[in-house]
Amino acid sequence: MNLRKWARLAATVELVVLAGCVPSVMTPTVTATPGPGKLPAETAKISYELEYGSNALEVHRDAIKKGQRILIVDDLLATGGTAVATADLASGLGAEIAGLAFVVELDFLRGREKLAKYEVFSLLHYDR
Q1: Closest CA to 26 of 68, 77, 66
Q2: Hey, which residues does 45 pair with through a beta bridge?
Q3: Neighbours of 39 (CB within 10 A)
Q4: Rg for the chain (alpha carbons), in Å?
Q5: How far apart are CA 92 and CA 42, in angstroms?
Q6: How many whole angstroms separate alpha carbon 128 and alpha carbon 117?
Q7: Residue 102 and residue 86: Cα distance in Å, rounded?
Q8: Helix/strand/coil for 11
Q9: Which position has the higher pLDDT, 16 or 71?
Q10: DSSP, residue by residue, 32-82
Q11: Into how many domains does the chain fold?
Q12: CB-based contacts of 113: which residues, under 8 Å, 6+ apart?
C-alpha cells in the first residue's frame, strides 16, 4: 500500500487541524468540506437528512482526484449521517474511501452500521 497517494478529508473546516495530526507521510493534502457557499472555486455539493433537519457539504471539485485514496477524519461518529454524506461526496468525485477515523464514537447510536462497507476507527467509545 502506497500511503503517499492518500489524502485526508476533514468533515468540517474546524477539523482540518485534527486531520493535520494524521501523519503527513500519507500526504500533504488536507481538504475540508464546509457548509454551502463558503468555498471560492467550483464545488461539488451533497445534501443529506439528519434526525433534526437537513444539511449540506461542499468540496472543491479539484481537491479530490479520480482514484485517489481518501481517509475521512471527523471528531464524532454519532448516527453516521455526516460521515456517509462525506464518503458519498468524495466517492462521487472518483475517490476511493480508504477508511474513516473518529476521535469519539457513540456506540449506542449505531452510526457505524451505516458505514459497514468502510474500515472505521475510533479512539474512544461510549456505550451510554
Answers
A1: 68
A2: 58
A3: 19
A4: 14
A5: 15
A6: 25
A7: 13
A8: coil
A9: 71
A10: E--STT--SS-EEEEEEEETTEEEEEEEEGGGS-TT-EEEEEEEEESSSHH
A11: 1
A12: 80
From CA 16, how far away is CA 33, in angstroms rounded? 9
User: 14 by DSSP, 3-state: which?
Assistant: helix
Decide: pTM greater than 0.90.
no
Domain interval for residue 104: 3-126
Q: Which residue type, as a one-letter code, is found at position 72?
A: I
CATH number of the domain bearing residue 27: 3.40.50.2020
pLDDT digits (tens, 9 = 90+) for 2-59: 444 445 555 554 455 455 555 544 444 545 566 677 777 888 888 988 888 898 888 8
CA distance 105 to 112: 8
User: How many angstroms from the chain centroid is the CA of residue 99?
Assistant: 9
pLDDT tens-digit series, residues 101-123: 888 999 999 999 999 999 999 98
Count Cβ atoms below 10 Å from residue 6 Cβ, excluding itself: 21
Q: What share of the chain is helix, strand, coil (3-state, %, to 5)?
A: 25, 40, 35
